[in-house]
Amino acid sequence: VSMSTPFVDPSGLTLPQLGFVTAIYGYVLFAASNLISDGSELLLLVPSVAGLVGSVVLPVLGAVPDGMMVLFSGLGPDAQSEVAVGVGAMAGSTIMLLTFPWFLAILGGRVNLNADGYPEYTKPKDAPDSWSKLQPAGNRGLFTTGVAGTAEVRSTAGVMVLTAMLFFVVQGPACFVVAHTDNRVEQATFVNRWAKWGTFATAAAFFAYLWAQGKSASRMAEKKQVDKMIDAIRSKELTLAGAVSQLFPDATVSKPKPLRQLRMVLRPFFDEYDVNDDHNIDRIEFRAVMKDLGEQVTDRGVRELFADADRDNSGSIEFEEFNQLIIRYLKALQEYGDTGYPPFAWEADGKAGRACMDATSLLSCVDPYADVDSPRDSPFDADDDEDAEEEDVPEDLKYMSPAKQQFQIKLRAGYKMAFGTLLVLVFSDPAVEVLSAIGNICNISPFYVSFVLAPFASNASELVAAYTYAAKKTEATISISLATLLGAACMNNTWCLGIFFGIVYARQLYWSFTAEVLAIVIIQVLVGLIAKKPVMRMFDAYAVLSLYPLSLAFVWVLENCFGMD
User: Fold this and answer.
1) How far is residue 250's CA from residue 387's CA, in Å, rounded to a whole number?
2) What are the distances in angstroms from CA 480 to CA 225, 440, 469, 477?
3) What percent of the chain has pLDDT over 70?
4) pLDDT in tens, 357-405
5) How far apart are CA 124 and CA 209, in angstroms?
6) What's the mean pLDDT in 149-165?
7) Cα–Cα nearest to 280, from 251, 313, 229, 318
8) pLDDT tens readout for residues 459-488
9) C-alpha distances in angstroms, 280 versus 296, 310, 512, 553?
10) Is residue 432 within 8 Å of 458, Cβ to Cβ?
11) Which of 504, 521, 562 is nearest to 80 (CA)?
């Protein structure tokens, strides 16, 4: 361990020791990447910034680990050789994101294809009750299962291929100068001029891409925001009021977009209890829905709220009646704020009937009839024991008003992103040195080591996210899953490439990355062509997966058989 750094000097380690240190650094970078991702996704729960988060913050922060690997690979004393680690991380990240997660997304999101060869996302009218989107379960037919290729995926694929052409801003002049001189100094001098312009070009493309995302990706960002709200409510991170409170910051409930988002949040909870598909729920089911939403209303509260919605006294309410009730419920919470009890907080027989730790919410209040010898609704009594075992809203949030819940979400998002970014900044440099040392001791280019190992530390979360999100098996979720992967490649083509060009210019490096650049660009073009298809079958998924090992073999052949080193 050097006196100037707490990290072990990799030059004196054996291969097993390097492997152990690599595992430690890789885990830290993996954890840091997850912290950044989790923190930025938490901001999707803040409606005022959710659109910006989905289209700008998430892509930028997702590219931070790879960008830092590229940056630190070019800051050492032997930048010309160590920068191969950065190139390997950038190439490996781009190609891994477009192969492994892509395959997993199609695997998780695949459904049966109908007679016309199109994915069957909706139940046909003549289908039996046993119908499902994937039959039989586990079906992996190469040409009989697949996913839809949406317009959003096709347009993002076009942007990815277009930004990939930025590599040729420097690659083209580099090929020209190599053909005219073998002098490394002359090559470096010529290439550096173009690297400077390449840095400006990638920076312009980076900001143009973010601007375009902010303009055109509203649908995808809104879907991500709504899904995050639903996940937060289901996992008891937030109550319904806490999750959607800032959709209506001024208690105005007439704006189309917030109303649409609220409906999207409420619909899956309502449908879970509409078991007979009659588009109605009764009072017992309403109580269960409110419980699932985190709004732990007392028995009397359930009766009064339900009666308020059931204007025709039918004993059941439709989704629209439920939706309008929740709007009134949320509006009441906001109008009363911290000044007193909302209309749904009552008093029993003229006495203060319940004690709330937070008067702005209906959470976990004492039942006003707890000490009154009056009969309760027996269906609720039957559920009491089960409810006691259900996962509840966390103690640090359950008594908070919606506004305070939102503040806690912002606080958590901030420290997760800050701490994750700090870990990336601290551990990227020693990770580069270790990967370079592994290449030296194994007598192979650090590029290959970094290509294989680095992406699985910095992008491992995408492997899981691509599958789990696509596994919802809807056209919207597969579109978001694949478009997100293509967007990550666009970020590598602008953000990471810009850092790389800047390193080439600042450190006066000569160009020795032709094979790597060709592999990156060709893979993106091939995946872009597949993404343009209206239907991507499991056969296409396996074809994309095969591109990962083929890209490594392609680089090796170009370097060792054609001298493109």
Assistant:
1) 34
2) 12, 41, 8, 5
3) 81
4) 333 333 333 333 333 333 333 333 334 433 433 444 455 555 566 677 7
5) 40
6) 92
7) 318
8) 777 777 788 888 889 888 888 889 889 988
9) 21, 11, 67, 59
10) no
11) 504
Q: Give CA–CA dist 217/224, Å, rounded.
A: 11
Q: Cα–Cα distance between 66 and 470 in angstroms, integer?
A: 24
Q: How many CB atoms lie within 10 A of CB 443?
A: 6
pLDDT for 548: 95
Burial 325-351 (b: 16+ CB within 10 A, else e): bbbbbbbbbbebeeeebbebbeebeee
d(CA 365, CA 346): 11
Query: How many other C-beta atoms are found inside a 10 Å radius of the C-beta of residue 200?
Result: 13
Query: How buried is residue 435: exposed, middle or buried, by Cβ count under 10 Å (0-12/13-18/19+)?
Result: buried
- Three-state SS annotation for 432-459: HHHHHHHHHHHCCCHHHHHHHHHHHHHC
CB 29 within 8 A of CB 427: yes
Largest CA distance in the chain: 98
Q: Are 451 and 88 in contact (CB under 8 A)?
A: yes
Q: Which two tokens stand for residue 154?
A: 């096709």
Single-letter amino acid code for the residue at 312? D
DSSP track, 135-171: SSTT---TTTEEEE--HHHHHHHHHHHHHHGGGHHHH
Q: How far apart are CA 401 and CA 242, in angstroms?
A: 7
